[in-house]
Amino acid sequence: MIRLEGIVQTYHGAQGPVQALRGVDLHVPRGQVFGVIGRSGAGKSSLVRTINLLNRPTSGRVVVDGRELGALSGAELRAARREIGMIFQHFNLLDSRTVFGNVALPLELAGVPRSQIRARVDALLDLVGLSALRDRHPAQISGGQKQRVGIARALANQPKVLLSDEATSALDPETTRSILGLLRQINREFGLTIVLITHQMQVIKQVAEQVAVIEAGRIVEQGAVIDVFTRPEHATTRSLIDEILPQTLPEGVLERIRTFMAAHPADPGRLLRLAYAGDGGDQPLLSDVVRRFGVDLNIVHGQVDEIQGRPFGSLAVHARGAGPAIADAVDHLRGAGVWVREEAFAHA
Ligand SMILES: Nc1ncnc2c1ncn2[C@@H]1O[C@H](COP(=O)(O)OP(=O)(O)O)[C@@H](O)[C@H]1O
Ligand SMILES: [Mg+2]
Fold this sequence. Notes:
Layout: E1 2-13, E2 16-28, E3 33-37, H1 44-50, E4 59-64, E5 67-68, H2 74-82, E6 84-88, H3 99-109, H4 114-127, H5 143-155, E7 161-165, H6 173-190, E8 193-198, H7 201-207, E9 210-215, E10 218-224, H8 225-230, H9 235-242, H10 251-263, E11 270-277, H11 282-293, E12 296-307, E13 310-320, H12 323-335, E14 339-342
Parallel strand pairs: 3-8, 3-9, 6-7, 7-8
Antiparallel strand pairs: 1-2, 1-4, 4-5, 9-10, 11-13, 11-14, 12-13
Helix pairs in contact: 3-4, 3-5, 4-5, 5-6, 11-12
This protein binds adenosine-5'-diphosphate and magnesium ion.
């Protein structure tokens, strides 16, 4: 649905050129909720704004629904943009207009007859649950309600793509959940392709199917969310995941393991990170390893959670037993689809 090829974005700031995007290739399949995550300044807004050419990239191609946007005339581009809705962190509503008036605006600009606007706006307000607030002004509604207005406005021209730039970053966790739930509902009901920009892994975990991690203007990792969560490769990805699923072992845990290892120099065991995603068959798997290989798997740290209904776990285990038996146990776990890595661990 969306294809970005070799996108470079260079700004000419007061202190000289800023390379915000350094060659980004991205493919967003039709009908997906696609997340892009990165820290502040990574280039997320620059990236999302190229998808509707709010920012014209310095070089590279933007193809949306089979059309290269850079090759379109002014009128064609305006028409193409109507198929791309956008929502923002600070909602960008017009304070002087009512809820109804804000949602009606893009329809007025598109030249939709008044008689049709009313029915269309009423349906949109119903969809986002704001029918009762249609005559209020933005100053009279909550942040979550403002974002619902933003969503209704973005959907007014029946776009095929919705871009969301930190749309929940100004909202509390509960409101964030309800807005993300609404986006997911819209994605399913209308088959809308959604590109969701965020700095919060929690947001990615809740709604995205695929995720791309951006850092310093480059995509450093991407894949299915469940794969990236269970097997993060890049240090930035790990540190972003760490915020909701601790990857770093507390010093007290490390200290106990060091003590054990020092007391058992012949068979100190190995500190391993196990990650898995699946249908809940994981606990028998661990006890099976204990029985078959005579290896103790002492879970020292970790978390079992769910991503969109699929269980996944990330556990640090201290495997204790004879070296060859541990090696066999690791092979067995890998054979069963568990991702196993030696936990970074400084011996004292
Ligand atoms: N209009 C601009 N002029 C100059 N520099 C900019 C402009 N917009 C963004 N930048 C710079 O480009 C980099 C990426 O910014 P941005 O895309 O906003 O990142 P993010 O949304 O991930 O925080 C930052 O270093 C930022 O300061
Ligand atoms: Mg931004």
